[in-house]
User: Fold this.
Amino acid sequence: MAPSRVLRCCQRGLSWIPVIFINLVVCWSYYAYVVQLCIYTIPNPEEQVIYLVVFHVCFVMFMWSYWKTIISKPSNPSKEFFLPKAEKEQYEKEERPEAQQEILKKVAKNLPIYTRTGSGAIRYCDCCQLIKPDRCHHCSTCDQCVLKMDHHCPWVNNCVGFSNYKFFVLFLAYSMLYCVFIASTVLQYFIKFWTNQIDTHAKFHVLFLFFVAAMFFVSIMSLFTYHIWLIAKNMTTIGLRAPVFRNGPDKNGFTVGFYKNLTQVFGDQKRYWCLPVYTSLGDGYTFPTRLVNLDSEQGNVDHQADPKRYFCYCLFSTVTYVTNILLLTIFLTF
Ligand SMILES: [Zn+2]
Ligand SMILES: [Zn+2]
Assistant:
């Protein structure tokens, strides 16, 4: 086997470590809650049953949305977006960027493409050799172009984009619910163990259960809030720069109102909003836009990274990563 192929196999294997870590933590939390807390610690049968039923509902929804995010294949551009053979050869032979742009413009004329690069050029992926549809980005980890790409998430070892964004947001919501339910129901037993009012072999599990659930809750909450804000604004994590349309840049170009933004991700039937089943609207290629930049003055909108958005992104990322690192460190030192 060629060394590069071996390296790729190793990389692919290593990329599953965060997923394995999350699953091990979840398996342990299941054992600690069901066996150590509900069966060995809680004396009241009624309390046991209520806790177990609600816990299992949260657990099933959490695992369902988590695995749907992991196993959903990212949507890739269809063959119409690849350069036809003749144009591709012409493009490769040509060295002048202006001439290459002319070739791309000719092909893009027949495609539903309304966004451009910062300099106004057609967005082209050199790795995949295709014209990028609107909101499509190349993921260097997956080595492919992904429709409405949001980000590559190591915790699900998958690209989060058009095919699984709803599942990802639900995964954040249900993992938060799972953590908050565990933390709130464990709290009274946590205090009893902590103050030595009860002292059984379940002590270690119950103390850690509260601690881990609370830490994960804080960590996920910041990420969840950030994504709800992105959905409300119809933006993506990767799209920190304002999208540039044919008539100029507009940071709110894809915003079509809060409710409509919401339905683009969750679908127009409210009964499916909470279920990790595919209901997102659209085809991943074209997106409704508000009518903007019809006059030349609007074309002067600054299309540099919005400092406010960039600050929010950095803040949420930092809180999430610092909490996770803190959690891991304390977990390992105990
Ligand atoms: Zn690509
Ligand atoms: Zn990816």
